[in-house]
Amino acid sequence: MNNFMCFKNKSVLLLLFFFGCTPQKIIVNNPELVSRYYFERKIKSYEKKEDLTKDEKRQLIKLQIQYAFGFILERSDRIINHDYHSGINLAKKAHPYFRNSIDLSLSNLKEKYPGIENWLVSKKDGINFKKGDVFDLYWLAAGYGGSVKSSRGNPYEMMNINKIEKILYKALELDPDWNYGSIYSAMMSYMISRPDLYGQALQDSIDKYYFLSLDATDSLDASIFVSYAEGVDVKNQNKPDFISRLKLAKTIKTNNNQFQIQNLLAQNRADWLISRKEEYFFE
Predict the structure, then answer these.
(1) How many domains does the chain have?
(2) Could you tell me if 104 and 57 are in contact, meaning their C-beta atoms sit under 8 angstroms apart?
(3) Dist. CA 42–CA 56, nearest whole Å
(4) Residues 138 and 86 in one domain
(5) Of 145, 175, 205, the domain-final residue
(6) What angle (nearest 5°) sits at the alpha carbon of residue 229, between those of residues 226 and 231?
(7) What is the extent of the structural domain holding 58?
(8) What whole-number distance in Å separates Cα of residue 43 and Cα of residue 144?
(9) Among candidates 59, 156, 148, 51, which has minimal Cα distance to 99?
(10) Collapsing DSSP states into helix, strand and coil, what is residue 25?
(11) Which of 175, 210, 236 is where one domain is finished?
(12) What is the Cα 156 distance to its own chain's centre?
């Protein structure tokens, strides 16, 4: 009976995904089923193809990064403090997805810009990118960001932070409001992680992109509040703002498909962060 019910639940989940009417909370409440029966299968279906079109590569890039960040690294973050070995192993599992997304993004960009890899490590501008390149630049930066995070401090990967900076500034120059301010959000996360900036200069830079992100999304993206609470309020030991920001994130509701899934994931993380607040603050 239990096996039958398990099979039934999996079958229902697959049908919901394939027919495009997925109740969003399934993603939060059934992360293992979603990762195995949607993301992994979808990724493998693309990987089986010998030649992917540019659009297919873009779809695969998004799937790999969303899966690696939203499910694998999320799980790693949650267990690493009490099960370090398993947390590291999950990060290692995520890493190839990010590396492959980087290769695919570079492959798309190389079609027009064969010198893209030299541009990434050069101090010169050298390439006349177009507005239509922002998608590939953004996801390339996301791939590098995930590769750095999943490496858990690997010095070789940390060198890619300079590439992330160059890519994001170029994307910002080309189309700052792209995709509901996604570049502003990425810039905020980048500023939070910058090792070369500190004090008021760092705070001002983070706040600049925080407010630009809120403006671009009409404050409908819960992940912005969660990222700021986790990356800034904890560092500043600002417990009241940490709690209020996360509680605010949990109240956000929208019919905009752009934000629905990422909001549920962000709100789920907000719950987890609030449950650990005593570990983050000394008072």
Answers:
(1) 2
(2) yes
(3) 11
(4) yes
(5) 175
(6) 100
(7) 49-175
(8) 19
(9) 148
(10) helix
(11) 175
(12) 21
C-alpha closest to that of 273 among 216, 233, 217, 221: 233
Helix (H) or strand (E) holding 3: helix 2-18
What is the value of pTM for the model shown?
0.86
| 157, 255: one domain | no
Beta-carbon contacts of residue 84 (< 8 Å; ≥ 6 apart): none
Ramachandran sector of residue 113 (left: φ over 0; alpha: ψ -120 to 50; beta: rest): beta
CA–CA gap between residue 168 and residue 45 (Å, rounded): 30
Which tokens sit at 153?
A: 């401090």
Residue 81 in any domain: the answer is yes
Per-residue pLDDT of the chain (283 residues), as tens digits, is: 444 334 344 433 343 333 344 445 555 566 666 666 678 888 999 999 989 999 999 999 999 999 999 889 999 999 998 999 999 999 999 999 999 999 999 999 999 999 999 999 998 888 999 999 999 999 999 999 999 999 988 888 988 999 999 999 999 999 999 999 999 999 999 999 887 888 999 999 999 999 999 999 999 999 999 999 999 999 999 999 999 999 999 999 988 788 887 898 899 999 999 999 999 998 6
In a domain, 93, yes or no: yes
What residue has token string 């994931």?
Answer: 265
The HSE-up count of residue 98 (CA atoms within 13 Å, CB side) is 23
169 Cβ neighbours under 8 A, 6+ residues apart: none
